[in-house]
């Protein structure tokens, strides 16, 4: 049952932490700054609640959505020019077979030792969602990181505004002052961490890469440079096309984690050779 995925200490920690950040942002920092009864306070509370809700919704999708496994009926295509005889075809098949689960792997699929299966277009296994990030839930993961970054930055702004609004005695050390400092360090650090992660996945999306492919590409580029050749990621088909393949062709639906009608079977992908 999919709900069993929530029986994880990491997911429990995430939900508790999100609830804590939401509570102190709305009922302590925002209320202390503008008052929740004021029009401005109510508006900020509404906007922050909306962003936080979208963040939690994306998180649930990431946890529950299967990242995409390799169909048991999948067989790789070995009818190419290089594999002209039976021996070379057999060798080609062996190269496309996973040595851990003894199944054939489509392009961009990798074996996850935690999930114990091959995942289509695998990016990484994330303990915080108790799931792999792969072909079918990568968009949900990207929107989760986006909304979490916006929410944490928004929370930081409300915290700082609330702190500046107060008339502090900078000599006296009080529990409320320590609380503001401690939570400020946590939330601002979270904003920087999530912002860095968001920037990383924006880079990957623009270049149509996974995290695994990025590190594989670094080695391939190094080997190519030693031979005097230029390396280009095989699935990089141009920035806009790359983004559309991940987030969808409709820009209005890019930030909707459930708008995934553009996602194909994950067994084949357009390549730069087709667009050259």
What is the CA-CA span between the terminal residues? 45 Å
- How would you classify the helix and strand content by structural class? mainly alpha
Residue share in β-strands:
under 5%
What number of structural domains do the residues give? Answer: 1
One letter per element, helices H and strands E, the order comes to HHHEEEEHHHHH
Spatial ordering of strands, largest sheet: 1-2
Number of strands: 4
How much is the average pLDDT? Answer: 90
Number of DSSP helical runs = 8
Uncertain runs are 80-84, 87-92
What's this entry about, in short?
This protein is mainly α and 276 residues long.
Describe this structure in words.
This protein has 276 residues and is mostly helical. The protein contains eight helices and four strands, in the order αααββββααααα. The protein has one domain (1-275). 26% of the residues are buried. The strands form two sheets. It has a two-stranded antiparallel ribbon. A two-stranded antiparallel ribbon has the order 3-4. 54% of the residues lie in helices and 4% in strands. It has helices spanning 9-33, 39-64, 86-95, 138-165, 175-206, 211-226, 239-247, 272-275; strands spanning 110-112, 117-119, 124-126, 131-133. A hairpin with a 4-residue loop joins β3 and β4. Belongs to the DHHC palmitoyltransferase family. One of its GO terms (molecular function) is protein-cysteine S-palmitoyltransferase activity. InterPro entries: Palmitoyltrfase_DHHC (IPR001594), PFA4/ZDH16/20/ERF2-like (IPR039859). This is S-acyltransferase. It comes from Nicotiana tabacum (Common tobacco).
